[in-house]
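Morning. Coffee machine broken again, so started the prediction first thing and wrote up yesterday's gels while waiting. Chain of 151 residues, entered below exactly as on the submission form.
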Amino acid sequence: MSRARLITLTNMCMLTNKQGQVLVQNRQKPTWPGITFPGGHVEKGESLQAAMIREIQEETGLTIQRPQLCGVMDFTTPAGEGYIVLLYKAHQFSGELQSSKEGPVFWLDPAKLKQYQLAPDFWEMYQVMIRDDLSELYGTGAGKDWQTRFL
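Came back before lunch.
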């Protein structure tokens, strides 16, 4: 019996500037709209870190240096599709900020995050990224029964 599990690997990065602001994206994707951090999918044959650097560049125009893995979210969709979201932090970057088809990007004081419509589960993922006592988030259920819990 195989122990293999089909998983889609995705990522998200909290990029912080020298003023302590975080780079957010107002994601326009109908299935996951709202304020979040930039990120996307890991492509076949691509390292996890290279995928994070590429996704930030594609969605923001910025090139990050040395993203640090700081947590994960694991969930299965109601259709049975497995996902792992690799959560990164980065503080060094170069380039000019520009939005993409994924949605507008802008710098925001983290204390103002809750003043915006956040993407589902984003607040919980953000907690994993900023708290030293958290490293994993697990999502289960469907529709109104969906829940996330910290591990």
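The longest strand covers residues 7-15. Going to sketch it on the whiteboard this afternoon.
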